[in-house]
Amino acid sequence: MKSKLLLLIFICASLLNAQNKKVVHPNLSGVSCKTCHSCEVPTKENPCIKPCPRDKMISIDQSPEEGPEVLIIDKFKEQSDIYAPVAFTHRLHAEMSGMSGGCKMCHHYNPPGQVIGCSDCHELTRKRVDVSKPDLKGAYHRQCMDCHRSWSGKVECVSCHETIGTSKNKKKQPIGYKGKNRVHPKIITPDKIKFDTPKTSGRIVTFYHSEHNELFGLECQSCHSNESCVKCHNKNKSASLKVKTTEQKHAVCSNCHNTKLNCSSCHLDTAKPGFNHKVSTGFDNSKFHSKLLCARCHTEKGKFKGLNNECMNCHGKWTQENFNHKITGLVLDETHAAIECAECHLDKTFAKPVCNNCHDDISFPKNIPGKLTKKK
Amino acid sequence: MTNQSRREFLKTTALIGTAVTGLSSKTNGAQTNQLSEDRMGVLVDTTICIGCRKCEWACKTSHEMETAPLDSYDDRSVFNVKRRPDSKSLTVVNEYLNNETSSLPIDVKVQCMHCDNPACVSACIVGAFSKKENGAVIWDGDKCIGCRYCMIACPFQVPAFEFEVALKPDIKKCDFCFERTKIGKIPACTEICPVEAVTFGRREDLVKAAHHKIKNYPNRYINRVFGEHEVGGTSWIYLASKEFEELAFPKLGKDPAPGVSEAIQHGIFAYFVPPIALYALLGGVMWINKNKKIEQGEEN
Amino acid sequence: MEDMKPVPMNKKYFTPVVIGLAVLAVNGIIFLLARFAFGIGAVTNLDNQHPWGIWIGLDVAAGVALAAGGFTTAALGHIMHKDKYHAVIRPALLPAALGYTFVAVSVMIDLGRPYYIWHPLIMWNGSSVLFEVGICVMIYLTVLYIEFLPIVTERFIGRVKLPGILQRFNNPLDKFLRILDKGLEKTMFIFIIAGVVLSCLHQSSLGTLMVIAGPKMHPLWQTPILPLLFLMSAISVGFPMVIFESIITSRSFGLKPETPILSSLGSMVAPLLGVYLAFKIGDMVIRGTFVHLTTITAPSIMFTIELLFGVIIPLRMFMSRQVSKSPAGLLIASFLVIFGVFLNRLNNFLVAYTPPYEQQAYFPSFGEISVTVGFIALEILLFRLAVMIFPIVSVPGVSAQKTKYSVRGGIR
To answer: How many angstroms separate the CA of residue C374 from the nearest CA in chain B?
Structure first.
């Protein structure tokens, strides 16, 4: 009897445990427990969490809107008699972190599933036994100063804090805090960049930034995933220019382009004109296909050549139901809807309709067809 | 010459011998310097320091030294020259250009390293310096005679002398905030540091933490903890992103700071045997020569 | 051999040279007063990079070395019992006593807190080289005074003539001097041996002093055998110092130099210098520091001058018979040895010392030089005064009335 009861308790406990795991870490996608826990079965009472900094960093990924708008950092009110607390515009910073690593920029070693604040790990008191990670004050300031001093070059406390005694700011808002809806100003992107490379032949590489994000539909993050503020905010530009290896220089392009072959496709002796689908391939996509993502037609990843430019290649199974004829300039009214496609489109490419079966011989689409000549 | 004087001679020699041996046992007793397992230290991470110089202000304030107002410390033009701790500031931060990896400069706080085997403690003529159980090397103003031998001995050029004071000049150096740590506080600089670039803790833990950091961020740090072994170990240890010698750290070996000086000294004065032996030898020579003279005189 | 007896010199004290020296002394004293009024920084060029200047490097380190004549002659005359050298013991003892007095004074003025100079007596640090040097110098200074006392008793026994009301103390004082003299006669050997032992200890430890500076000291000089080198150089400079002083004193008082004694003293210099040179070069070869001599820098130049002019050339001179027979040759050769040891101490304490964070090099200020020069001048003046008051310089053919008190210091 007793043993059965014990067994029951054990089963219940393990069930509860299994459930706990899901509750605490719902999106534990492939992350081993051992990354963060030192024991086999971590419990709520004894989570046996490995001390930070751990060997492997895992983090979470959320949209900025999921986080708090503004955080008042006033945990040190009792300790500090020099500087007032800071209101941290969390959402603004979260948005800005998009191009440089996202949440994990600050929320390092964060268990998956829930975002935990700095004070959950970092101790409030500086005099402590565990010196492997900074105390809370140090942790906050390290996160802030890491970027702030790099782009502003300033380390003055008063750039974020009010000095106590001189403070008129009752709400304890940070210096320069201009309300909730403040966003990072729109980043002005260049249209094209001409790289002057050290190559003897094919010195010039012309990069059309606008093409890549507008035409090819790349998100900022797809290339700018690890930028620091200094990329733009730097008073001392030349100092930030790194000496890169050839590989590092090509890294961002080689995500899509094969940079090992065909250097001359990018490296030219003169500036290269922008990409024009009609000039390069003979297929004018500017009329009907300009809004399409490349991958809609070029379905095989990385392969763009050899696509048949006949409409039927893609539009083989057009029916009136799946084709919005309006897009061609002719709304299929009741009359036209009743006609078979082949009545007007004599060839199979559907390139040009023939209207003079019924209308005056004015060709479509330059002019609308003339008077109806034939009645059905 | 009589036998009497010879006996007298031996008697006196023996007397001096015993007196001196008694003396020596006392001196030897004072030298034992057992390091505590729990001695404290500070880990300075130069890759974290932002050069705000709050530590300089806190140091002066807690030592009741004259200081400019806090906001004047934002002036970064002081970094144009490399400064050293002196009698008016016990710690200073210097800034070095970081040529390759990043545009951010490297800031290095300088103060007494609080050696585990301090040269100043070994050198001081009156024993005004002492290594405390908590790791601090402190100076006793009641003993100091102002000879400045500590300044000759220190491999880090830290002790500073009040050259401008006529009556009672002090030796000034970081005292690891001995008065603060005595009452359970942590050193003023480690308390104020906004980014905790200076971490106060058990030296053993700090060395461990430092090596953990190097292991985790091999690109951020060079694989060396300055002060772990230098001059036999120091209480203050440093991490950096480039070679310490490029950040104006002195190039030092692993031997304890007093070097061979103590070995020579203790060799010459090993239980006062060598001096007494020399004394006896010279006495013997004198005695023999004198007897020779007497014999010669008798023969004549 | 002529009968030589020490007598007080009977000459006019003031000469043009003496007046010149007095001016230098007064100048030094003025700067000395400024040092006590405004601090060390006001008078010297010392700073946190260069904690020690010429007051230690020259006045103390070189001063101690050049006062080595006292113990070397004492060892020769008393311990080795070479009676013929007794004539130079007193002329060597006086500068040693004077020299050490000024060493003590120089230490005091260089101390930040001179009024605490007694601290080492009760506050001991056995591992401190400076402590040992300090204690040894203090005791040795006392020993030197005790060794000098018989000269005082000899001068005043039977001649105590206090003026005025103090006349009644004449007899007791005379009695006291006689008792003192008797006591000293019996125990002097203790002090003589102690003097030699103490000298050996602190002359060598003066070298150990800079060992702790470690890498702050130029490798040409920084060596663990520094104490041995210091001891050997101090022993080598002892006799040249005596020869030099003796010849200068003789000339100054218009006496005939005691060339035979000085020559035989000089004959002992060459082996001593030779051993010193061998050790110095051997040390250089073993540590491979000669590579530093291939580049022309201030240390390499100073080292070469020190070795060439201070050791090698005088060594060659002392080995020559011609030189050791002529007073002029002896004077020059001795001067070169003195110069060599002087430069060696200067090099060890100042030239070799390179602070890790040096903002500007050290060069002594006018005030420092003034005080050092003033002290040297004062020393010479006091020396002249002392030989005129006390029986120190031996003069041939003086009728010896007070034989008992004429030759003093050895076990009789």
So the answer is: 21
Q: What's the pLDDT at A291? A: 73
* Predicted pLDDT at C5: 77
Query: What subunits make at least 3 CB pairs under 8 angstroms with B?
Result: A, C
Which CATH number belongs to the domain containing residue C298 in this structure? 1.20.1630.10
The whole domain housing C133 covers 51-354
Are residues C111 and B147, on separate chains, in Cβ contact within 8 Å? yes
What are the residues whose beta carbons fall under 8 Å from the beta carbon of C340, sequence distance 6 or more? C233, C237, C306, C307, C309, C310, C311, C314
Contacts of B209 in chain A (CB under 8 A): 131-132
Return the CATH fold of A192-275.
Answer: Cytochrome C3 (3.90.10)
Q: Is the pLDDT of residue B149 over 50?
A: yes
Chain C meets chain A (3+ C-beta pairs below 8 A): no
**pLDDT, mean of residues C221-248:** 92
Domain residue spans in chain B? 3-32+269-299, 40-261
Tell me chain C's radius of gyration from C-alpha atoms: 22
pLDDT the model gives residue B255? 87
pLDDT in tens, C292-303: 888 899 999 999
Residue range A37-86, pLDDT digits in tens: 888 888 878 888 887 777 777 777 788 888 888 888 888 777 777 788 88
Measured in angstroms, the CA of B192 and the nearest CA of chain A are apart by 10
User: C380 in a domain, yes or no?
Assistant: no
Neighbours of C (≥3 Cβ pairs closer than 8 A)?
A: B
Domain count, chain C: 1
B to A contact (≥3 Cβ pairs closer than 8 Å): yes
In this structure, how many other beta carbons lie within 10 angstroms of the beta carbon of residue C286? 10
Q: Which residue of B has its CA nearest to C349?
A: B152
The amino acid sitting at B11 is K
Q: How many CB pairs under 8 A join A and B?
A: 78
Place of tokens 């200073």: B92
* Overall CATH class of domain A64-159: alpha beta
What's the ipTM?
Answer: 0.89
Residue C72 lies in a domain: yes
Which of C42, C197, C216 is opposite residue B275, by nearest beta carbon? Answer: C197
The per-residue DSSP string of B19-53 comes to HHHHHHHHHHHHH--PPPTT-EEEEEETTT-----
Burial class, A253, CB count within 10 angstroms (exposed 0-12 / middle 13-18 / buried 19+): middle
Q: Report chain A residues whose CB lies below 8 A from the CB of B199.
A: 131, 134, 138
pLDDT at C380: 92
Domain B40-261: CATH architecture, name and number where available: 2-Layer Sandwich (3.30)
Contact C218, C245 (CB under 8 A): no
Contact B162 C210 (CB under 8 A): no
Closest of A254, A274, A263 to residue A199, by C-alpha:
A263
End-to-end CA distance of chain A: 93
Q: How far apart are CA A372 and CA A359, in angstroms?
A: 4
Tell whether C40 is within 8 A of chain B (Cβ).
yes
What pLDDT, on the 0 to 100 scale, is given for residue C49?
93
Does the distance separating the beta carbons of B71 and A131 come in below 8 Å?
A: no
Residues 6+ apart with CB under 8 A from A311: A349, A350, A351
More confident residue, A264 or B31: A264
Per-residue pLDDT reduced to its tens digit, B224-269: 999 999 999 999 999 999 899 999 999 998 888 887 888 888 777 7
Domain layout of chain A by residue ranges: 1-50, 64-159, 192-275, 310-376
Residue C308 has pLDDT above 90, yes or no: yes
Task: Give the pLDDT mean for C104-126.
Answer: 92
For the stretch B12-60, pLDDT in tens is: 544 444 444 444 444 443 344 578 888 999 999 999 999 999 999 999 9
* Closest-approach residue (CA) in chain A for B48: A142
Q: How distant is the Cα of C389 from the closest Cα of chain B, in angstroms?
A: 31
